[in-house]
Amino acid sequence: MDFSQLLADVPTLVAVIVGVPAVLAAYIVGGEYVVRLLPDKLRPSVRPWIWVGPALAFVGFFLVYPVFGTAYRSLFDLSGNSFVGLSNYVTQLSGFPSGGSWIAIRNNVFWLVFFTVLVLAFGLLFAVLTDRVSYESPIKSLIFMPMAISFVAIALIWKFMYSYQPPGEPQTGTVNALLGIFHQDPRLWVQDPNVANQALIVAAVWGFVGFAMVILSAALKGIPGDLLEAARVDGAGELTIFRRVIFPLMMPTIVVVGTTLVIFALKAFDVVYVMTNGNYDTDVLANRMYKLLTASQDFGDASAVAIILVAAVIPVLIFNLRQFRAVEARR
Amino acid sequence: MASVTYDHVVKRYTADLTVVKDFNVEIKDKEFMVLVGPSGCGKSTALRMLAGLESISEGQIRIGERVVNDVAAKDRDIAMVFQSYALYPHMSVYDNMAFPLQMQHMKKPDIDKRVKNASRILGLDNFLQRKPRALSGGQRQRVALGRAIVRNPKVFLLDEPLSNLDAKLRGQTRIELQKLHRDLETTFIYVTHDQVEAMTMGDRIAIMNAGILQQVGTPGDIYDHPANLFVAGFIGSPTMNFVPATAQNGSAKAAGFEVKLPKSLPAGKKGTLGFRPEAVTDRVTDEGNALQMKVDVVERLGSDQFLYGQVGGDSVTARVDPRMKVDPGDTVKLGLDTRSLHFFDSETELALL
Ligand SMILES: Nc1ncnc2c1ncn2[C@@H]1O[C@H](COP(=O)(O)OP(=O)(O)O)[C@@H](O)[C@H]1O
Ligand SMILES: [Mg+2]
Prior knowledge:
heterodimer, A: MetI-like fold, 2 domains, 14 helices, B: 2 domains, 8 helices, binds adenosine-5'-diphosphate, binds magnesium ion
């Protein structure tokens, strides 16, 4: 590595380390000074804006502006020069069921259902199964471990897991090697459109189950022990206790985790990009948008896909926020 | 409707942590038995072993004739009221009470009849559709009781059910619980650390300390004949007076006085002389039993007057006529009623009288 380049940047580094806190301090002191100048009555209504101002500016500049910019761009042709109205949307949403974005939309729905349900089911299963065993934390750490790996790496790992060699040759892919143990012929996973989506979703589920488990496990531990004891004395078996007491009490948390997973499923990108790049009928909206933007250099269509994605996510997001607030309020 | 027997029951958490030691009690059918003792003495553990919420390390617990050591909690036909009430927060009051009946696969109309009946007894009619969150502490406590009584259980367990209520409500509920016991005609086992609750409610009381059963008896029995120093000090308020004393030919000699004992003890026996505050009064009938008390604090309760002071250097509490005029600093002459004297061995702490 060329350290001289790093050294050349030292003045910049110093400027950032000293400058950022200095600017921040100046802003706070200056802001408070301005607030002091105001009449007493106005102060309480002005002060919050001074504090929340920088955050608002950042969100506005890096989030709101790009969204509106994208929406605007989606109304222009591929080079961004001539206004084409809604025709990009027409292109993307025509040709049902296999033209335009429809394959990607279908796969996103597929992800939404199976990814969400599988992560929740396994997360709940692991949370419940590990709850009362003595080796709880090592097991949970193991299950949580994939969360520490980037999804690109997870995708690569699973590419190896699914790797295929012709029958008779040693199978380096774990999945096909397992098939070999049961005297089955190896098969294509990622390259077979019939199972490719499932294969990708399994990889993502593996990467995400730890997240669901940890949060659901916290919710499980939040249920007072004497409720379960009361149910036991009331004559309920363990399964009934789970169905009638534990599960309903965990429901708000399950909903919050579930909607978070739905949003993740709608945004699914890295696993698809790395494992298939959308081939073998596995394309999803985020990957399609990326391909339109880079390979086809089609800004208009890419923006239209992006807006379709945003439109799909927003309702879930609002629902999630509401639910989260409801859970908080119940504490 | 069953008796309960603890037969040499031991609860051990680890090899050197035994919280219930050789516990033997027979609780009769339809009896109101109170298990009382200071916090942490193992009362809840004893109760929870009966409920099936803790395993039994040694010994046997029987409900009726049936040994329940290996019977699951859900099959013991026991109802329990928890200190925290443990109501299901996501269920309405109605569903909370219906839950144990649904577990028995009882028919809906029968469940309805029982829940309605219990809610009428407990005055919960107007709250059946509410969630526990929307109830006051007293109402929650009633729901917890309701959930227990709908079942008609063999045995009714209550673990400090009144400790989360304010003083007034506690007094009321105490009376209602006794009435409930009479109406239900079921065995009640009631755990409390409060000796007043124990004295007022129990048909019999079992007193525990440090995992060991100290004495079992009726409230009157235990009050008048405490088996040892611990029981004598735990039951009664203000507590019994304890004065170091030595026995000698038919009397006991303390630092500030000497009293005749109703029963003669071996001469020279060292121990603790015990007498309740109400045995020290302003009525001096026999000069031989008179005490000179230097008064430190005077407590007037309207119906009673308590004097806290020193007799020959030992702290003594006296209960005197509320009309007697005494001020702190005074020295007064009081009489000791020798009929209710106790003498505890200094080594074994057991009562010798
Ligand atoms: N699960 C446990 N593990 C170890 N010790 C315990 C456990 N549960 C209770 N204890 C101990 O047992 C003793 C008796 O507890 P408990 O029966 O709850 O007392 P109490 O008479 O106040 O109801 C206490 O000292 C407590 O610390
Ligand atoms: Mg207790």
